């Protein structure tokens, strides 16, 4: 497949697609197609696949290849697709990135190399890994700066990568005090920072937009209601953006603090998008009481995910 051509910076709402499983834990491929169609009907500006919220750490290499091909073929260019290709071993990252680019991905997302709590790549190793992916895949790279890796990525180092590695131009900042880091990154990096994004279910979205974020990578729980917040803010109306955000923040907070990646699956199962909200062991299912609290917060908002399949 030829590489997608895109002359303008990607911006807006790029949620992470969940990976649906059957009750026995097998991939639900028909459910995956429905998830993608639902997300496009949510009005998303793009979709990220095979990320942490896609349970990438619970998916085999063969399953990963199956999902990559299925998702890119089914989306078929309707929206740009970001593919997460993180791994500690650089050769695996490079091969994943090349395969993703060849299948039609618009962008690669990478965390710095890490394995467990103490095995982390140095700045030199991280720089070299990202540079090799840049050369091999030749499509934009989004740096995922998240606490999960345990790797400290300083603003000067991020700016160095943006200026010296051709394809590094997007940044998903979801560290504590994300707004301050976004503001510092944009000020220090200037035009090299093409796409400053936030993440972490958009729990700090307003502060991050005020700091200069041009996109957000939420889950697929409620991007249809997050998008107006971004649009109003980008149109120069932060007051209306804040009003919309206030109405959805309790649900975003509950997702982020109480549920994690399980929230979107519960909502999509309730809405008939997928047949099961199964998560793979050793991740436990939501407690019934937590599940009901989530649905209690979500039902009044008339989410696309909660109505799409009914």
Explain this structure.
The protein is an alpha/beta fold and 310 residues long. It has a single domain (12-305), classed as TIM Barrel, CATH 3.20.20.70. 46% of the residues lie in helices and 11% in strands. The chain is built from twelve helices and ten strands. The strands form two sheets. Strands 1-10-9-8-7-4-3-2 form an eight-stranded parallel beta sheet. The protein has a two-stranded antiparallel sheet with strand order 5-6. A hairpin with a 3-residue loop joins strand 5 and strand 6 (119-120). Helix 1 (29-41) crosses helix 2 (61-75), helix 5 (155-164) packs across helix 6 and helix 9 packs antiparallel against helix 11 (288-298). The chain is globular and about 50 Å long.
Question: Can you give keywords for this protein?
Answer:
single chain; 310 residues; alpha/beta; TIM Barrel; eight-stranded parallel beta sheet; two-stranded antiparallel sheet; 12 helices; 10 strands; 46% helix; 11% strand; globular
Write the layout of secondary structure elements.
Layout: E1 12-13, H1 29-41, E2 47-49, H2 61-75, E3 81-84, H3 90-103, E4 107-110, E5 114-115, E6 119-120, H4 123-137, E7 141-145, H5 155-164, E8 168-173, H6 178-189, E9 195-198, H7 205-210, E10 215-216, H8 223-234, H9 238-259, H10 262-270, H11 288-298, H12 304-307
Helix pairs in contact: 1-2, 3-4, 5-6, 8-9, 9-11
């Amino acid at each position: 497949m030829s590489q997608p051509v895109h002359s303008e910076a990607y911006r807006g709402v790029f949620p992470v697609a969940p990976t649906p499983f059957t009750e026995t834990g097998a991939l639900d491929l028909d459910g995956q197609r429905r998830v993608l169609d639902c997300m496009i009907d949510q009005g998303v500006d793009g979709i990220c696949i095979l990320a942490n919220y896609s349970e990438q750490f619970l998916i085999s290499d063969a399953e990963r290849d199956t999902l990559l091909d299925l998702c890119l073929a089914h989306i078929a260019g309707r929206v740009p697709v970001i593919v997460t290709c993180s791994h500690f071993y650089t050769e695996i990252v490079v091969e994943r990135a090349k395969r993703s680019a060849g299948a039609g991905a618009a962008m690669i997302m990478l965390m710095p190399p890490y394995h467990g709590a103490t095995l982390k790549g140095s700045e030199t190793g991280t720089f070299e890994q990202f540079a090799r992916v840049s050369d091999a895949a030749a499509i934009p790279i989004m740096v995922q700066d998240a606490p999960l890796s345990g790797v400290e990525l300083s603003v000067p180092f991020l700016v160095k990568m943006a200026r010296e590695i051709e394809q590094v131009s997007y940044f998903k900042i979801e560290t504590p005090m994300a707004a301050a880091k976004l503001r510092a990154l944009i000020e220090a990096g200037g035009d090299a920072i093409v796409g400053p994004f936030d993440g972490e279910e958009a729990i700090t979205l307003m502060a991050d937009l005020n700091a200069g974020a041009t996109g957000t990578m939420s889950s697929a729980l409620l991007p249809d209601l997050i998008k107006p917040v971004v649009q109003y803010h980008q149109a120069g109306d932060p007051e209306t953006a804040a009003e919309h955000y206030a109405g959805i923040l309790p649900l975003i907070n509950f997702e982020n603090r109480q549920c994690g990646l399980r929230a979107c699956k519960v909502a999509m199962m309730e809405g008939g998008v997928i047949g099961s909200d199964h998560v793979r062991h050793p991740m436990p299912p939501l407690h019934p009481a937590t599940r009901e609290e989530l649905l209690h917060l979500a039902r009044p908002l008339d989410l696309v995910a909660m109505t799409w399949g009914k």
